[in-house]
Amino acid sequence: MNTYRIKNLPFLRDYRKKLRRNSTSAEAELWKLLKGKQLDGRKFRRQYSIGKFILDFYCASERLAIELDGDRHGDYAIIRRDEEREIYLQKLGIRILRFENRMVFQETEMVLETIKGMFRKE
């Protein structure tokens, strides 16, 4: 499937901007550690959309999505939406990592090491 035509669709532009402006504290903290190719030289984007789904963070060179989950992810409707998103992304060859928000603060090194562990060896 060609992903070029489904990335950052124009109709989601304003919503992506809104999400960036109103990011959670965990998203803001992780972004500090990912932006500017700080993590092994990989470029991450935040609030990047693929199809109708907006990813918290995405590294195109690694085809890797990172999602941060808060308490609301215990809700059945949100769990179903997350499952739909994962199936869609996996069909495109995109791998997904999920972390609870608290892990960004309490287990920062483990989060970063887990992300790096998903990088393809050069």
Describe the overall structure.
The protein is an alpha+beta fold and 122 residues long. It has one domain: 3-Layer(aba) Sandwich (Endonuclease, Chain A). 42% of the residues lie in helices and 20% in strands. It contains five helices and four strands. The protein has helices at residues 13-21, 25-34, 76-91, 101-106, 108-117; strands at residues 45-50, 53-59, 64-69, 95-100. It has a four-stranded mixed beta sheet, sandwiched between helices. A hairpin with a 2-residue loop joins strand 1 and strand 2. The longest helix has 16 residues, at 76-91.
CATH T-level topology? Endonuclease, Chain A
Order of helices and strands: HHEEEHEHH
Largest sheet: 4 strands, mixed
User: For the residues shown, what is the average pLDDT?
Assistant: 90
- CATH-defined superfamily: VSR Endonuclease
CATH class: Alpha Beta
Keywords:
4-stranded mixed β-sheet; Endonuclease, Chain A; alpha+beta; 122 residues
Summarize the structure.
This protein has 122 residues and is α+β, with helices and mostly antiparallel strands. It has helices at 13-21, 25-34, 76-91, 101-106, 108-117, and strands at 45-50, 53-59, 64-69, 95-100.
